[in-house]
Amino acid sequence: MNKQAINWNDIKDNFTTLFWQQNVRQFWVDEEIPLSDDKLTWKTLTPEQQDVYKKATAGLTLLDTEQGSVGMPEIALKVENLHSKAILGFMGMMEHMHAKSYSSIFSTLCTMAEIDELFEWVKTNEHLQSKLNLVSSYYTNITDNKSLYMAMCMSVFLESFLFYSGFFYPLYLAGQGKLVASGEIINLIIRDESIHGVYVGLLAQEIYEENWEKEALEKLLELFEIEKKYTHELYDQIGLTNEVLKFLEYNADKALMNLGLEPYFNVDEYEVNGTILAGLNTKTKNHDFFSTKGNGYIKPTNIAKLDDSDFDF
Ligand code: MN3
Ligand code: MN3
């Protein structure tokens, strides 16, 4: 079959350009966020608090590694639209930036021995490995539209739901003025994941056929069972497990909504820990995730303000 070149002068939908531009505007590099100020705060944390922080971000490193190396490339390979492939490729590149940025945090806060130990923990943690294996089994078995849809659902579950057990603690501390530089990186990552979840969710909705939502919800609940165990393992030692689980339910609903599906847990915003929501509500800071970059990170491009109505297609 003859190969088709991508033609950016012939775009047939009304969201490709918007998502391409927004992804490019949000581009950031970990080396541009100075982290050394966090060292002082780090020393004031208890060993348990440090343990949770390290494991939460190390777990995120594993998920981003897989999303950049397998998830985004596999989905990009299987979608037909050339512009979608381009956008997914850009997003996959950012996954590698995310994974790399956690290593910048580690090298600021931890010794080399601690870092080695942490990556060994990731490799051997049962719950972390089993949730990732479940997600990844869908990435590597795309054979038709249904399996492509399910792979997209898993991608949205990963980015809009599963990441948040890891984001919780950095947001929680940043909300109290602790480790704010690392928190800034987390905020930049969350802003990326937000747009990724919305975009892959839209691609999934384009190929959706009736009754596929049943299997999607089943998988979400299966992931939630693993996530509960993971959350207990991490957060029991600092007594935050129930708040993390509530936050996970809240984000699981967001993931379902990104896929155009009904929310399942129906968690109201006020049930979520206020410090976390303050950390998430990027509008209270210098950046909202669809317009500029983070505090102190403004690149002089032609930045246009977007609002929710830009995403009604
Ligand atoms: Mn990522
Ligand atoms: Mn992502």
Which SSEs are present, and which pair or pack?
Blueprint: H1 16-25, H2 38-44, H3 47-78, H4 82-109, H5 112-124, H6 126-139, H7 145-174, H8 180-207, H9 212-235, H10 241-258, H11 274-280
Helix pairs in contact: 1-4, 3-4, 3-5, 3-6, 3-7, 4-8, 6-7, 6-9, 7-8, 7-9, 7-10, 7-11, 9-10
Give the gist of this structure.
With 313 residues, the chain is an all-alpha fold. It is 67% helix and 0% strand. It binds manganese (III) ion (2 copies).
Helical residue percent band: 55-70%
> What is the terminal separation in angstroms?
33 Å
Low-confidence stretches: 283-303
Bound molecules: manganese (III) ion
Give the topology string: H per helix, E per strand. HHHHHHHHHHH
List keywords for this structure.
313 residues; mainly alpha; 11 helices; 0% strand; globular; binds manganese (III) ion
Describe what this molecule looks like in 3D.
- It is a single chain.
- With 313 residues, the chain is mostly helical.
- The chain has 11 helices and no strands.
- The protein has helices at 16-25, 38-44, 47-78, 82-109, 112-124, 126-139, 145-174, 180-207, 212-235, 241-258, 274-280.
- It is globular, with a radius of gyration of 19 Å.
- The structure holds manganese (III) ion (MN3) (2 copies).
